[in-house]
Write a structure and sequence with these properties.
By secondary structure, the protein is mainly alpha-helical. Among the domains are: 22-51; 52-94. Helices cover 78% and strands 0% of the residues. It is built from three helices and no strands. The protein is flat and about 65 Å long. It holds the Pfam family SPT_ssu-like. This is Serine palmitoyltransferase small subunit B.
């Protein structure tokens, strides 16, 4: 009898397939609402909601272009600068880099 009660409780905790679908739909709606909210915040911060439609498209194009250039520049140049800074500070604090040529006696 104990195992039947356990099985009944376990079955009650499991959501039905329709509840899973409903939860997924609510999650998608929540994400969609959040994206709309972020876009609204972007419009408010940049004051681009007051622009004409053609001005908005030009403004958004320029913003996307600038953002893409910043991301590309960071992708290309930040790793190089991090490596150079690491080598610089390694030399300052006395950590000697391993030689690529091994000494054989």
């Amino acid at each position: 009898m104990l195992s039947m009660e356990k099985a009944g409780k376990e079955g009650a905790c499991q959501p039905s397939p329709s509840q899973n679908h409903w939860n997924l739909a609510m999650d998608i709606k929540r994400v969609k609402d959040y994206i709309y909210w972020l876009y609204y915040q972007y419009l408010l911060i940049t004051c681009s909601y007051a622009l004409e439609p053609w001005e908005q498209s030009m403004f958004h194009t320029i913003m996307v272009t600038v953002f893409a250039m910043v991301v590309y520049t960071a992708y290309v140049f930040v790793p190089i600068h991090v490596r150079l800074a690491f080598e610089f500070f390694s030399q300052i604090f006395g950590v000697q880099p391993d030689s690529t040529v091994s000494v054989v006696n």
